[in-house]
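Fill in residues.
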């Protein structure tokens, strides 16, 4: 068993890579557990004390047994006082052991709760400073996995392993030592099958690290085929390729099955042999049989045999707990690695002290930006300069992929430019105090959360009253539709809500209305919505834009024409700026304008 860090490529990992992963996992675990290391150490110390105390009841048992047997053999009365004393020691030690064990578990469970909170808080603090462009769907998945699954996996390691793992290690050693103290021959009988078991298990675990990683990789391949098949099911069905798509899944599943079968088949024999060496009847046979012979020879007492046989029976349980805790440790290593990785996500540079802009004019000065880094970098903006005069509407136009959305998202500080500056009222964007109360945005994807519609609208102003939320919904032309829903504003947004894309857009507009930001970024993408919804969205957007500094990603001729300033973008550069009348003779603009008229509702060509 080993750390199973998922790898997306199907290449099986080598044993060196596995070792490196395991080491990295162990280091990551140490980092993650550092805030509660002291408490875990205390839990371990208490677990050791409790494990050593486990010997006392056996000592008492042997003494009581001897007292009873001696009396029976001599035909005399039992020394009731001595039996009573040992009985009290037995019960007292047992109770004390349980109490210490309970306190140790309590300490580690409280440490687990603290650590869960510390990790969540550190993640939230870190992610609140991360570039907004980072939050792609994959990264959202990573955050969800870390916050839910990984913290859960680490739970076992923090709350249980220090106590159960230590106990499973120390208790058998202490009991075994006592078995040898009773009589070395009985001690040997108690551990008689252990070396064979360890050898069988070592054999079956050989190469386990590599194989587990291979299994993880192959399973990922099967899941990928499955996801491919399910996500593309409509297209696959429409083109009658079900057999083919299904075959590719079937092939990877068969490949996995063959790999797994070949790996596990020989192991099953060895490990069942190993397990049978720890079977209760075998242990009893060896200990009681051998013990009876020793009793017969007068070397030990029956009570001694009873105690060491009971000790021998505890060994399988201890080994199982030990193996589970090793497994949990390796799983937690992979989880800790993911958490440490997330905590190291690059964040936006800290700017100087927050400043309040004197006006709401926006200036882009020589702004360049690329997505990704190194060889994968995609240059999206190249020296963009433009100015938004306060209280006016600037329309960004240009072909698909020209950089319009990138310009808009940089103003909302989804990321910082690689070169150049963006200022609001003379203050660089990173230094603007309360940026999101000054810059509102309604982008193509309305980004509604799975919370009530009321909370979705009030997201930017959580203190808003019901009346204010209703007023915003009315201004966004969506009030009636919300009120017609069975739960009205309490409806939780989600796949079953039955809201159309246009309605979701208008809810996002209501949210922006409520924030009441003086600078607005709008994406007038309405191609996916029905004409009635388009009309309502246009009206809502025009109301919203009034009196504000607006940067509008424009698609429709009448909207472009109505803008105070039009900025024509192509290939990440600004190639012309002016009013419609000034630009109408510009060849690039004229081309877009013609296309916009020819295809007023299409997304792909020219101005949409
Ligand atoms: N997340 C991303 N990762 C990598 N490249 C990206 C990403 N987003 C955009 N790009 C690239 O940056 C360039 C500009 O894209 P942008 O989305 O800003 O253009 P756009 O004019 O808004 O296009 P559209 O009208 O199609 O939305 C394009 O080449 C695009 O492929």
């Amino acid at each position: 068993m080993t750390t199973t860090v998922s790898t997306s490529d199907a290449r099986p990992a080598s044993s060196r890579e596995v070792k490196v992963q395991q080491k990295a996992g162990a280091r990551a675990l140490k980092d993650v557990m550092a805030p509660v290391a002291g408490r875990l150490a205390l839990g371990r110390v208490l677990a050791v004390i409790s494990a050593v105390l486990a010997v006392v009841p056996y000592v008492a048992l042997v003494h009581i047994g001897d007292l009873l047997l001696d009396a029976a053999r001599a035909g005399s009365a039992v020394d009731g006082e001595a039996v009573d004393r040992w009985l009290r020691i037995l019960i007292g030690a047992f109770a004390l052991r349980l109490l210490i064990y309970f306190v140790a578990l309590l300490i580690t469970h409280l440490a687990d709760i603290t650590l869960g909170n510390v990790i969540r808080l550190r993640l939230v603090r870190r992610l609140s400073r991360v570039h907004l462009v980072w939050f792609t769907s994959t990264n959202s998945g990573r955050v969800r996995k870390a916050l839910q699954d990984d913290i859960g996996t680490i739970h076992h390691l923090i709350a249980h392993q220090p106590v159960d793992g230590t106990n499973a290690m120390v208790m058998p050693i202490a009991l075994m030592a006592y078995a040898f103290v009773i009589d070395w021959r009985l001690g040997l009988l108690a551990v008689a099958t252990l070396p064979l078991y360890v050898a069988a298990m070592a054999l079956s675990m050989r190469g386990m690290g590599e194989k587990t990683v291979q299994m993880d990789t192959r399973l990922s391949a099967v899941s990928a085929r499955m996801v491919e098949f399910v996500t593309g099911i409509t297209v696959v069905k429409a083109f009658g390729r079900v057999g083919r798509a299904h075959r590719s899944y079937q092939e990877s599943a068969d490949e996995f099955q063959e790999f797994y079968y070949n790996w596990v088949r020989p192991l099953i024999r060895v490990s069942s042999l190993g397990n049978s060496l720890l079977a209760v009847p075998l242990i009893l046979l060896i200990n009681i049989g051998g013990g009876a012979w020793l009793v017969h020879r007068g070397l030990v007492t029956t009570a001694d045999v009873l105690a060491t046989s009971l000790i021998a029976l505890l060994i399988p349980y201890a080994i199982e707990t030990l193996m589970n805790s090793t497994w949990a440790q390796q799983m937690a290593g992979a989880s800790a690695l993911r958490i440490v990785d997330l905590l190291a996500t690059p964040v936006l540079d800290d700017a100087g002290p927050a400043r309040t802009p004197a006006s709401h004019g926006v200036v882009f000065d020589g702004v360049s930006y690329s997505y990704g880094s190194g060889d994968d970098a995609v240059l999206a903006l190249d020296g963009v300069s433009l100015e938004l005069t306060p209280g006016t509407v600037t329309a960004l136009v240009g072909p698909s992929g020209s950089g319009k959305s990138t310009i808009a998202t940089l103003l909302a500080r989804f990321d910082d430019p690689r070169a150049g500056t963006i200022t609001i009222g003379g203050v660089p964007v990173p230094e603007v105090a309360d940026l999101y109360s000054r810059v509102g945005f309604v982008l193509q994807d309305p980004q509604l959360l799975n919370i009530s519609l009321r909370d979705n609208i009030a997201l930017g102003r959580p203190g808003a009253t019901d009346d204010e939320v209703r007023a915003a919904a009315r201004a966004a032309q969506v009030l009636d539709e919300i009120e017609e829903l069975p739960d009205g504003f309490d409806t939780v947004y989600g796949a079953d809500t039955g809201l159309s894309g246009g309605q979701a857009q208008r809810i996002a507009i209501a949210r922006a209305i409520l924030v009441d930001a003086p600078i607005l970024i709008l994406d007038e993408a309405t191609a996916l919505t029905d004409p009635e919804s388009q009309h309502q969205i246009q009206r809502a957007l025009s109301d919203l834009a009034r009196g504000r500094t607006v940067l509008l990603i424009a698609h429709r001729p009448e909207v472009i024409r109505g803008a105070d300033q039009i900025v024509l973008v192509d290939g990440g550069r600004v190639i012309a700026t002016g009013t419609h009348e000034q630009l109408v003779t510009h060849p690039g603009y004229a081309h877009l304008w013609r296309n916009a008229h020819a295809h007023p509702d299409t997304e792909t060509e020219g101005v949409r």
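The mean pLDDT is 82.
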